[in-house]
Amino acid sequence: MKRPIVSTVGICVLALTCSASVTYKAKLNWHECTAQESAYPKTVAEIQNIIQTGKPPFKAIGALHSTSDVICTSGTVINMASFDSFSIDTATHTVTVGSGAHLQNVQSALQSAGYALIHTTQFGGISIAGGMGTGAHGSTLRHNSNLGEMTIQLKAVLANGTVATFNQDSDLRHWRTHLGFLGVVFEVTLNIVPLFKVHASISHYSESILDDLGTLATDQDTFMAWWYPNIEKVVTYTGKFVDVATSGSGVWNLVPDVSPIVQDLLSVPLDLQADWCVLEYATYSDMVGNVLVRDVTSLIRPPFLTTGNGLYSSSAVGYPASMIMSTCSPESDCTWSSFQVASFAVAVPIERFADAIAIIQDILSKTPFCLPLTGIFFRFSAATDTSMAVEYKRTTVHIELDTLIVDGVEPSYGRTFLRRLVTEVEGRMHWGKNSRDDFYAIYPLQNITAGTKEFILYASTIDPNGVFRNDFSTLLGV
């Protein structure tokens, strides 16, 4: 049964602000927040009015894909869905968009105009400001891997209700991963490039390839890998950027549409020791086009990679909007519309990658488990000076373990995974992917970077009265 993302207690009419308690939920794990008021501004002046007259603290929300407490407030939640403007400046090779615009829509509109963002996250159903603010990232060591690094200017309403424009690195290095703690971002300007295509290839190996993934990542425009430890296999996605004139209309389906019938089937409780292991093998087989499984999985979801004809292919060429990124349309067709997903995500310095793999293998040896969704997912990002970025001052491998929540309980091995990577290999928790309870249990064990200390000082200057703070900011010391 599908659950509502937002529900309001009390009677509200269509208005700028609704003076009744409102609950809203993250789409992936249904983590629930409760605010005193909800607001739906359509203009910058309306945002200013909300900040000047509404109930603090304030939290701007977008697509609600963050599963941590970063999306919550006890005061007024501000829905930025109406801010979806789009404008290209061909002279400066930039695009200016409303903060509530969805990434998939922006990249598709750019494609129509002959442009593209140089790289994107792998899921397109996130808002521009939300993805930027939580450090959402793709996977590349050659290019900027996240929206914040492509941002050259943004506009925001500050705690005193004034509008400010930020276009200097001294400010932007804090705003590029702002976590919603600095103000209400309503407009973002990003660098764009002439449209290109992506030549993607899917390969599979024994898990002995794990030691070489960091090297393989440096040679590609985009590179990802999925490890299926129970069957000792690794799947890689390598992408080379090629000329836009290259023939091909391929489609990558990391996050595909799933029929309501299948969603209902997936919501049925599973035997964790048996069925999940079967699903792990089926997911791996779908990725590599196993002929014995392909015909069955094609009834459930489209092929992992296709040349555009609906049939599986291990190699395809297509536009970046469909080859680096994927989404569900409508989003109610995403698998997480019917069940809760537990996401455990940690950023590790690339030189500690081998140590991280050894830790995961040790956890598996002590607590065997199967992964029915995407195995253990690896992505790569270059170092950055953005103060709250998990890639701050170090080249990074992002390690993500996604699984199902059964009867409202996360599997215990997930927290063990977080704790050991944080304490043993200098891991940093992804701001938008780990649950509220996991953050409160593990973040106090995480090393505080110099960048975080600088961000805390900057936030205290720009919002001295804590108008945009919440419980999550308190945990982080902001």
Automatic annotation (TrEMBL):
Q: In which pathway does it act?
A: Cofactor biosynthesis; D-erythroascorbate biosynthesis; dehydro-D-arabinono-1,4-lactone from D-arabinose: step 2/2
> Which top class of enzyme applies to this chain?
oxidoreductase
Q: Which domain of life is it from?
A: Eukaryota
So what EC number does this one have?
1.1.3.37
Q: Which GO terms describe its molecular function?
A: D-arabinono-1,4-lactone oxidase activity; FAD binding
Where's the FAD-binding PCMH-type domain? 31-195
Any idea which UniProt keywords this protein has? Answer: Oxidoreductase, Signal
Q: Name one GO cellular component term.
A: membrane
Write down a Pfam family by its short name. Answer: FAD_binding_4
Specify the signal sequence span.
1-20
- Write down what this protein is called: D-arabinono-1,4-lactone oxidase
